[in-house]
Amino acid sequence: MGGKKRLVLVGNGMAGVRTIEHVLKLAPDIYDITVFGAEPYPNYNRIMLSSVLAGGSNMKDIVINDWDWYTENGIRLYTGDAVTRVDTANKKVFSKSGVEAEYDELILATGSNPFILPIPGADKEGVIGFRDIQDCDRMMEASNKYKRAAVIGGGLLGLEAARGLLHLGMDVTVIHIHPYLMERQLDEPAAKMLQLELEAQGMKFMMQKQTAGVRGGRRAEGLDFADGSSLMADLVVMAVGIKPNVALAKASGLKVERGIVVDDYLETSLPGIYAVGECAEHRGIAYGLVAPLYEQGQVLAKRLAGVETGGYEGSVTSTKLKVSGVDVFSAGFFQDVPGTRSLRIQDDLDGTYKKIVLQDDRLVGAVLFGDTTDGASLFAKIKKGESVAGKEKELLLGFPAGSAGEDSQAARLAAMADDEIICGCNGVSKGTIVEAVKGGCGTVGEIKACTKASGSCGGCKPLVEGLLQLYGDGVSGEPVKEGICGCTSLGREEIVESIRAMSLKSVKEVMNVLEWHEPEGCSKCRPALNYYLGMLWPTEYVDEKESRFVNERYHANIQKDGTFSVVPRIYGGVTSPADLKKIAEVAEKYDVPMVKFTGGQRIDLLGVKKEDLPKVWAELDMPSGHAYGKALRTVKTCVGSTFCRFGTQDSIGMGIRLEKAFERLNTPGKVKLAVSGCPRNCAEATIKDLGVVAIDGGWEIYVGGNGGVKVRASDLLCTVKTEDEVMEWTAAYLQYYREQASWNERTAQWVERVGLGTIKTVLENSEERQKLAGRIEETLSRSTDPWKEIIEDESLRKNFEPLASV
Questions:
Q1: What is the SS3 assignment for 261?
Q2: Distance (Å) of CA 335 to CA 125, 187, 190, 300, 332
Q3: Which of 458, 462, 511 is nearest to 488 (CA)?
Q4: Residue 789, SS3?
Q5: Which of 56, 95, 363, 566 has the most neighbouring CB atoms within 10 Å?
Q6: Rounded distance, CA 303 to CA 294, Å?
């Protein structure tokens, strides 16, 4: 590291990390980089929070740069550790946990905070903003206890929060002070169409309402309005805007107005300190859209890398969004004002609307609803300011009269300027994508890996595919293949078949023989290959630890502060006084900060230091509960006929038998089971990956359930009479899932993809069912308890020793 300048980034969000990405490309060896993030996660896409809330994504799906990216680029990362002070005289920053970091160049990318209305009761429990992943967690937690939600704000964030709460089963009312929704992005006709669509989805609205206060005691119970009316609500989400987070900058003596004041090179009032993103104010404007923030990052990166560049001159903005499943786009001045002319098409049957606004023969604004295909080309014409006289109707229609739809799409893409933004989520232009295609990217997956285009909401994927067809080898019109990751164009089926046909026996061999573009693979394909090899060759393949995620390498769940949680196996949720005493003694001896019962009837020891893990496991002397892995997690049970007067079968015994049979089983995604002793279903067996429900004289087996963010009720697979039949059908089903599902695909998605009928056809064949059960038994016969293995192997225990201080 000697001789390198020290670059510190305060804020691990989209704008700051995108700046670092550009610096690494332009000058990879100039800086020793340190990043501080207030949240306990790597860099993630805040735009996709609504998708997490609505169940379409999870935290892992929205991560832009994972933990490995920081390590691979030599970046020192502190998560969950906000910077609290900057010593500008001595060029040092100080974090909440006491970390000190010296800098030569400092970037402040502290983002923004949600604006909370200054009204009585705004500080009550149950009143939250919508800005980060923790807000999503709070909403999901509230939906488990309460049913009525009020969202204040009918802009984009408010509507996305409302849609997510609807998905969580809450009764949702949106309160908006304006006559129509999203007035900053839509004109009234488009907004009314949107409201009708959202009302059809179950959303309620109170328009032109000014909130006067939050009613209730300690917790919110509703809202009072200025006109004297009120609304009962158990959860209040404020989504009325954002304000730049300038507290650190102000305390550091930087010039602050609405945001941190910066010049055209994003430098603040103090030399060597820069600000980028939502916290920065440039020429009186603080931007809240991603494209301007990325443009700022490009200029700042060039400045830091010593590359000659013009300054940042501000941005002409456009907005392309997906609001609760409906595409909308707006750009420029789209309202009708004196001196402008407008043309519009409204199709209530197809649910589309298009409006363009002209001034002095120039296109100055546009609104699109339902179909946003023309957004990028219209935005380019707005920015250029050229005369469109005689082409007005062509702009409105999106193609010259008489041209075909596909041909018009190709023509539009060809006519686009290189600086037009294709992927709004990640600020990727047409020119960047075309350059990647001409540089050898031959699939959407490769383009995504190279440029991040289509890597977030996926709304631009048709345009990316179009550019690939237009400028790449796909010009023949053949379907564009997308592989399991950007390292390969091969899909799951091709990879598995190749491994089987060519008897490939290692991750490195697969990547070499199948001609991976990246010889070392990535964090997506390596774990997948490791699983497929283990599934195909259970008696020969040696598990490759380095291809597993950090939780599976350390056999414990890493927490936001770097400690781990330990969950021992408790079969069927049944324990003993001796085991409880042992757990308590270990928790006391190792100062475990929290002991918690999990939703799967187990005990979780939270906050264990990495170096203490082997000692904790040894003293517990219990098997691993695999709470960290893609494996069988728990088998939840009710008391069944053992004690319950309604129980028809021994659900405890059945659950313990299942758990002891299938513990340590590696699967494509985590697997949860449950056994209920009667149709009252107290063990919630019908929202599990596999659930067994006792009936008079037999058992029902349900599959494909999910009780997580995206709830799915399971499907009835079969009804059997004996416990042995339950075991056989369960074994066959789990093995069929293991052999057919894609890596990281939960059973709920797998069942929906392949169809319950297909699964039944296979498993109803007695011979095939027994073969599947035989293969899973062979796999399980080779498995060992990982905690015991590490305890007994000194070479493995060394991986848990604390790093020597430098």
A1: strand
A2: 40, 6, 12, 34, 9
A3: 511
A4: helix
A5: 566
A6: 14
Radius of gyration of the chain (CA): 29
The binding site for [4Fe-4S] cluster consists of 638, 644, 678, 682
The DSSP result for 665-680, as a single string, is -B-SS-EEEEEESSTT
Q: Which residues are annotated as a binding site?
A: 638, 644, 678, 682
CA dihedral of residues 538, 541, 547, 549 (deg, nearest 10): 30
CA–CA separation, 53 vs 554, rounded Å?
29
CB 367 within 8 A of CB 353: yes
Q: What's the CA gap between 704 and 687, in Å, rounded? A: 8
Q: How many CB atoms lie within 10 A of CB 338?
A: 4
Which among 165, 232, 150 has a CA at the least distance from the CA of 201? 165
In percent, how much of the chain has pLDDT > 90? Answer: 60
Nearest C-alpha neighbor of 99 from the set 112, 82, 113, 124: 82
Q: What is the 3-state secondary structure (H, E, C) of 446-466?
A: HHHHHHCCCCCCCCCHHHHHH
Q: Which residues contact 723 (CB under 8 A, 6 or more apart)?
A: 653, 654, 657, 699
Cβ distance 112 to 242 under 8 Å? yes
Helix, strand or coil for residue 646?
A: coil
Two tokens, residue 20? 């670092």
Confidence band of 171 (pLDDT split at 50, 70, 90): very high
Q: What is the pLDDT of residues 535-562, one digit of tens each?
A: 999 988 988 887 787 788 889 888 767 7
CB 504 within 8 A of CB 510: yes
103: exposed, middle or buried (Cβ count in 10 Å: 0-12, 13-18, 19+): buried
Q: Return the closest-CA partner of residue 188 out of 197, 200, 178.
A: 178
* Sequence-distant (≥ 6) Cβ neighbours of residue 628 within 8 angstroms: 551, 552, 554, 555, 556, 557, 567
Residue 673 token pair? 């089971």
Instruction: Give the pair of three-digit tokens for residue 666.
Output: 């590696």
What are the binding residues for siroheme? Answer: 682
Coil/strand/helix, residue 97: coil
Name the residue among 601, 610, 608, 560 with its Cα closest to residue 587: 608
**Count of alpha carbons within 13 angstroms of residue 60, beta-carbon side:** 5
| CB of 138 closer than 8 Å to CB of 225 | no
Q: Would you state the pLDDT for residue 523?
A: 74
pTM of the shown model: 0.58
pLDDT digits (tens, 9 = 90+) for 219-234: 999 999 999 999 999 9
